[in-house]
Specification:
The complex is a heterodimer of chains A (283) and B (328).
Chain A: H1 2-12, H2 15-33, H3 69-105, H4 107-122, H5 125-135, H6 141-168, H7 171-178, H8 183-191, H9 196-219, H10 230-239, H11 248-276
Helix pairs in contact in A: 2-3, 2-11, 3-4, 3-6, 3-9, 3-10, 3-11, 4-6, 6-9, 7-8, 9-10, 9-11, 10-11
Chain B: E1 3-14, E2 17-29, E3 34-38, H1 45-52, E4 60-67, E5 76-79, H2 85-91, E6 95-98, H3 112-122, H4 130-140, H5 157-169, E7 175-179, H6 187-204, E8 207-212, H7 215-221, E9 224-229, E10 232-238, H8 239-244, H9 249-256, H10 297-301, E11 307-310, E12 313-315
Parallel strand pairs in B: 3-8, 3-9, 6-7, 7-8
Antiparallel strand pairs in B: 1-2, 1-4, 4-5, 9-10, 10-12, 11-12
Helix pairs in contact in B: 3-4, 3-5, 4-5, 5-6
Classes of the chains: A mainly alpha (283), B alpha/beta (328).
Chain lengths: 283, 328
């Protein structure tokens, strides 16, 4: 009980974590309920007069084609969270699977998995995506998550492998083994809980990384073709001269949101790190 | 007979060649007997303990264990190395282990109750009455019932070792392998823990394999002692016999290093020359000959046989008959 309240105490007074999670929560709520405040679909040509600055009717103005920026923004936020959750989640999951297996089994299994990890690590993601994108006419958001998840896991795998290596030689793991516990349960009950804080941090980093990668891919035109996202908004804005014509309402909100979300995730990461590692706490 | 080990051999494969951690170790253990395994660091005593419970796979040899579970209630000798996975898991209820490091041998994320219950859960023996059993165990090893929900970091080293002991006993084993159970503890706590282990051995009629480098600890607790040097058992006898009349020069040298409580006692310590032999590249003949002050040419050429020189007193030394060695 004492331990739990101590964690709670440091959680509640850690500004980095509170500010970070506050920002994330704000955007998450916006993404969830935002679309109910707008009559227009994100790609629908709502205004016949083309680009318009923000007004009471179009809260964030309209694009060059007269699409509602607010509708694009809140729907794009949804896509961003989906990419973070699925892409980052998949990356973490695959990394855990490979890292735990390599670290726990060791020996030849580890050699093979580690070699595979290193190969994937040095494959230039962007080049591969260019090739894949050239072959696919229609790309969905789900496919983008899959790409990101399947290319982002090696760092997770390497780190978890190293931690598992150090934990599996601890004697309580030997004790579990010689009591007859099965390897999967040893990993789940004995090893994983001892790096839970680490796994949470890894997931948050993967979440932010996936959002950034998605924005990059969207911006250079390799994003999903049948939907809207914050990265795609910026791509269209740049493509149709939002910068030279000063249509700031078109590209500032998505750019700001991506920066804020990723920044908030990193801030959460540092804050959580301080809570999990007493040495880093600010007194 | 609770356990019979024959020619147990463990080689670790490394890039520099095989490390001979354990070579042709043979011994047996009666029900309720405490057998001490003593020797310097790296002599293979820990390997022996861990191989018996098949934490390490041996390169050769046999391990016979008297199992009641596999005999359906009647004791039956089984060869642990011939068991399949399911049978081995059943036998694991009857053999348990206590480790040296009380910090690392308890999972810091589990409560004391969960740690002790773990073996029961693994073997599907955790039921509604188990919590009472665990509390009784806790009290038996000198802890309190309200410690059940606490976490390992809230305890001292000696208390943690008691938790480890309670966990080792939770399935009512027949054999407990104690791997240096007290060497990480304070001297005053060592005595308490040793006494607790002795009491438990009486109460539950346990057999112990007691691995330790501290000869006074081994002497205190063991009925019989095997002294090991570079993976081989060099001498084995009743505790008293071995300490009073050692037959192997290595045992003599070890015994001379045991501190005596008498300040007037003029100790004649035998300072051994050189280092422990490298188990990946052991010397010819008797492994101990480069450090032995009684060594003759024969010792360099021929490896001595492990033989029963007196009744129940085994030794591996060419000159055991002629030497007059000092004990304590």
């Amino acid at each position: 009980m004492k331990k739990r309240s101590e964690v709670l105490y440091f959680t509640l007074r850690n500004k980095k974590l509170l500010i970070g999670s506050g920002i994330i929560l704000f955007f998450l709520i916006l993404a969830l309920i935002g679309p109910t405040f707008t009559k227009y679909k994100p790609l629908e040509y709502a205004s016949p007069r083309g680009a318009e600055p923000p007004s009471t009717h179009f809260w964030m103005g309209t694009t060059f084609f007269g699409q509602d920026v607010f509708s694009q923004f809140v729907n794009g936020l949804r896509a961003t969270f989906v990419v973070g959750l699925l892409g980052g989640g998949l990356g973490t999951l695959v990394g855990m699977l490979i890292g735990f297996t390599a670290g726990y089994r060791g020996g030849i299994v580890d050699e093979i998995l580690n070699a595979f990890t290193n190969i994937v690590l040095v494959i230039p993601t962007l080049a591969v995506l260019l090739i894949i994108a050239a072959y696919l006419q229609v790309r969905s958001l789900l496919m983008e998550c899959l790409f990101i998840g399947l290319t982002a896991w090696p760092w997770v795998a390497r780190a978890i492998r190293a931690q598992t290596f150090s934990l599996r030689t601890r004697e309580f793991v030997d004790l579990a083994k010689l009591s007859g516990m099965k390897p999967l349960r040893i990993i789940r009950d004995e090893i994983a809980p001892n790096m839970m804080s680490y796994l949470v941090l890894v997931f948050i980093l993967q979440f932010g990384g996936a959002i950034l990668t998605a924005a990059t891919l969207d911006f250079i035109g390799l994003g999903p073709t049948n939907t809207i996202s914050l990265g795609l908004m910026m791509q269209y804005a740049v493509l149709w001269g939002a910068l030279p014509f000063g249509m700031w309402w078109w590209f500032v909100p998505p750019g700001l949101a991506i920066t804020a979300i990723v920044g908030a995730l990193y801030s959460m990461n540092v804050g959580l790190d301080e809570i999990f590692t007493p040495k880093l706490r600010e007194i | 007979m609770a356990l019979k080990v024959e020619n147990l051999t463990v080689y670790y494969q490394t890039l520099r060649g095989d490390v001979r951690a354990l070579e042709h170790a043979s011994f047996q253990l009666e029900d309720g007997e405490i057998m001490g395994l003593a020797g310097e660091s790296g002599c293979g005593k820990t390997t022996a303990g861990r191989t018996i419970i098949r934490l390490y796979e041996p390169t050769g040899g046999e391990i016979y264990f008297k199992s009641t579970v596999l005999g359906n209630g009647a004791p039956k000798m089984v060869n642990l190395l011939e068991l399949d996975k399911a049978q081995m898991k059943l036998v694991r209820q009857e053999i348990s282990m206590i480790f040296q490091d009380p910090v690392n041998s308890l999972n810091p994320r589990m409560s004391v109750g969960d740690i002790i219950a773990e073996p029961m859960v693994i073997h599907g023996k955790y039921g509604p009455e188990s919590e009472g059993v665990i509390i009784a165990l806790l009290e038996r090893v000198g802890l309190r019932a309200d410690h059940l929900r606490r976490y390992p970091h809230e305890f001292s080293g000696g208390q943690r070792q008691r938790i480890g002991i309670a966990r080792a006993l939770s399935l009512n084993p027949r054999l407990v392998i104690c791997d240096e159970p007290v060497s990480a503890l304070d001297v005053s706590i060592q005595a308490q823990t040793l006494n607790l282990l002795e009491d438990l051995q009486h109460d539950f009629n346990l057999a112990y394999i007691f691995v330790a480098h501290d000869l006074s600890v081994v002497q205190h607790i063991s009925d019989r002692v095997a002294v090991m040097y570079v993976g081989k058992i060099v001498e084995m006898a009743d505790s008293e016999m071995l300490y009073n009349n050692p037959l192997h020069p290595y045992t003599e040298a070890l015994l001379s290093s045991v501190p005596k409580p008498d300040p007037k006692y003029k100790s004649e310590r035998i300072i051994m020359q050189g280092d422990v032999a490298d188990p990946s590249n052991p010397p010819s003949g008797c492994y101990f000959h480069p450090r032995c002050r009684y060594a003759v040419d024969l010792c360099k050429q021929k490896s001595p046989e492990f033989r029963e020189l007196k009744k129940d007193h085994f030794v591996a030394c060419h000159r055991a008959e002629e030497l007059k060695l000092r004990g304590i």
